[in-house]
Amino acid sequence: MTVHQIELTGINKYYGAYHALRDIDLKIRKGAFVALVGPSGCGKSTLLRSLAGLETISSGDLVIAGAKMNGVPPRKRDLAMVFQSYALYPHMTVEQNLTYSLRIRGVDKAEAKRKAEEVAATTGLSHLLGRYPRELSGGQRQRVAMSRAIIRNPKAFLFDEPLSNLDAALRVHMRKEIRALHERLKATSVYVTHDQIEAMTMADHVVVMRQGIIEQQGAPLELYDRPVNKFVAGFIGSPAMNFVPASSGSDGKSLLLEFEEPQTIPFMRPVKAGQPLLVGIRPEHFELAGDSDAMLRLPVGAVETTGASTYITTATQPELVIVLNSRAAIRSGEIIGLRFDPAHLHLFDQQTEIRLG
Amino acid sequence: MKRLLLSISDGRGFDIALVSVPLTFLFMMAGLPLAYNIVMSFQEVDMFSLGTFLRPFVGLKNYATLFSMPETWPILKNTALFVIASIAGQFIIGFGLALFFWTNFPGASWLRGLFLVSWVMPGLVVGAIWNWILSGDFGVLNYLLRESGLITGNIFWRSDPSFSLWAVVIANIWLGISFNMILLSVGLSTISQDLYEAAELDGANVFQRFFTITLPMMRSTIGAIISLGLIFTLQQFDLFAAITAGGPNNSSNVAQYWAWDLSFRQYDFAQGATISVIMIVFVMIASVVYVRSTRHEVRG
Q1: d(CA A268, CA B64)
Q2: One domain for residues A197 and A341
Q3: Is A82 helix (H, G, I), strand (E, B) or coil?
Q4: Which residues, listed in sequence order, are joined to residue A347 by a DSSP beta bridge?
Q5: Measured between alpha carbons, how far is B160 from B244 in angstroms, rounded to an integer?
Q6: What pLDDT shows up at residue B297?
Q7: Which residues lie across from A296 on neighbouring strands?
Q8: Do A28 and A164 belong together in one domain?
Q9: pLDDT the model gives residue B299
Q10: CATH number of A108's domain
């Protein structure tokens, strides 16, 4: 039996008439790193703040480490949060920032100082303990915010888009650092982000949310390989998955892709004939093909190259994005042949956008 | 010549020209009278020498005379009491109200704006209104205190020597509350809500949050408001003129009112100037504190 550090059952949250969280069920294993991801306004931050106790939930059960926490104030939940703005106390030095929670708890001064030094040593802040937050760089502030959480040894860490104020290079670096920290501390972590790459690379359990609903949750690759609906399929992965309206061929062994000039591709899995479909395929699952084995022949719109990869946008309606991990001498206006493994096709119902098969 | 013109149109000369206008104004309207006042405190001034500038120099005689007068120490003590009680009252009630409106209940900002009415009213009008409220026979304050059982007989606020100073203090607190509240509200609104949430998660209860976040973050605002309060209370003249006129028997007299009384009613300009100089010293100290505290703003 796995131990659940956080258990949410049937959580609902209303702001007046606005239904911000709808029947959220989420179980978080002890020591897991869970990412809540979704577009802005999807309720991920509300969910995190409800966990922290900064928002009150309207209904449902919120259990942390076996204790029901519905009405418990934040200070008694023993959770640590890293804010997007870091929320460092500007009138305190780094050391005072780190020891704040200990001092509030009445830990004696020498002990607090010792712990601060210990944590600072692991996060590379030892030489900055006497500085004020305004004298630190963005990355250093971020580290102070993290250290302030670590020093408490809380029941869980909550991260509210902690990397969004950093520049791209630093963000990639901090991503690894947070992950490494998690490997070392094995602390239960809930991480809110709008960046699916952050979610995919850092978490061992990703929760995709939209409009207050959990659309899908699971291991990162599970979400990538078997998205339950068009939204998740389009949200996870970059560049986003291509979608083409289609219908199944009368022989039951092919699909008719509805470009301006429809194209037929072979397809083995059984599909109801004539059902309106949406076919999804990821940009990285295409390969260039010669005349003999091409499954699709499409005109090229734009070609962009980064050196390592080539991004091709087709001149079709809807347009497809193709990523090749090689250089290709392709020019705009050319007709190219493409092939792909049919196992990589995702089928969705055109009306409900739910995955088929 | 050309270089000078160029400098004035675009360069250091231009900067100096801009700065010199307000500096000249300040010097003429504040600097000269101030200096003249200090000079007068070392001279023998009477009605006959009032029109001349060169008067007999008497050294510290005016100061010596002042401190040998029997009313001097009681009046200075009154001044200190008036300043401390007024600032304390204005600050504590103002801070309380600022915290109250900070909770942002519906209509909070609208109500807060209404409070400014007291700040807009002229001191003489405020004094006249408080005269009625404080009136011994028919005053509302006495009525309230009597009906709530706090007192049995009427207090003659303005004519009882043990209450007369407090009558002015009460009116002055009322007058200054809104100013304190507005400045403190502004200070409160600059504190990021995130800090309170972080402190809350760090385990701080509402009192701990107040003493570890609000108060230290408000340090510069509080420093500014207390030094401004010191300056404003030392300037408070209208209320004394309207409510007690310093009486009875100097029991509610303070330095600023006394200085005016000596100069313009008893025509003892030298003594009036001497008291003013002593007050200038205190106002200077307050100004330094004010400038320093606004410079030391902590903003993350």
Answers
A1: 113
A2: no
A3: strand
A4: A279
A5: 10
A6: 55
A7: A338
A8: yes
A9: 46
A10: 3.40.50.300
- Asked whether residue A159 falls in the same domain as residue A272, the answer is no
Q: How confident is the model at residue A342 (pLDDT cuts 50, 70, 90)?
A: confident
Domain boundary among A208, A235, A262: A235
pLDDT at A2: 61
Residue A262 CB contacts under 8 Å (≥ 6 apart), including other chains: A256
Q: Specify if A354 maps to a domain.
A: no
**B203: nearest CB among A90, A91, A101:** A101
Distance (Å, whole) CA A339 – CA A249 = 19
Which residues of B fall within a CB distance of 8 Å from A52?
197, 201
The pTM of the full predicted model, rounded to 2 decimals, is 0.80
Assigned domain for B42 exists: no
**Amino acid at site A318:** P
Give, in order, the Cα–Cα distances in Å from B201 to each of A81, A87, A106, A289. Answer: 7, 11, 16, 58
Total structural domains within chain A:
2
Q: Residues A59-101: pLDDT tens digits?
A: 999 999 888 988 899 999 999 999 999 999 999 999 999 999 9
Helices (H), chain B: 2-9, 12-26, 32-40, 61-68, 72-102, 108-115, 117-120, 123-134, 140-147, 164-189, 193-201, 206-209, 215-217, 219-235, 238-243, 255-260, 269-295
pLDDT at B81: 93
Q: Does A153 touch chain B (CB under 8 A)?
A: no
B208 at A interface, C-beta within 8 A: yes
A224, A285 Cβ separation under 8 angstroms: no
Question: A197 in a domain, yes or no?
Answer: yes
Domain boundaries, position A161? 4-235
Q: Does B200 touch chain A (CB under 8 A)?
A: yes
Element (DSSP H or E) covering residue A247: strand A242-248
**What total of structural domains would you count in chain B?**
1
Whole-angstrom distance, CA of residue B53 vs CA of residue B285: 29
- Report the residue count for chain B: 300
Cβ neighbours around A259 below 10 Å, total: 19
Domain range enclosing B251: 72-295
- Residue A67's Cβ-side half-sphere holds a number of Cα atoms within 13 Å equal to 8
Contact A75 B212 (CB under 8 A): no
What are phi and psi for residue A314, nearest 5 degrees? Answer: -85, 155
Return the closest-CA partner of residue B226 out of B92, B130, B115. Answer: B92
CATH for B263: 1.10.3720.10
Tokens of A82: 């890293």
Residue of A78, A89, A135, A152 best to disrupt the B interface, most CBs of B under 10 A: A89
What is the distance between the alpha carbons of residues A100 and B101, in angstroms, rounded to a whole number? 28
Q: Report the alpha-carbon distance of residue B207 to residue B214 in Å, rounded.
A: 10
By the CB < 8 Å criterion, does A114 face chain B?
no
ipTM: 0.84
Question: Residues A199, A269: one domain?
Answer: no
State the Cα–Cα distance between residues B197 and A30, nearest whole angstrom.
Answer: 25
* pLDDT (0 to 100) of residue A12: 93
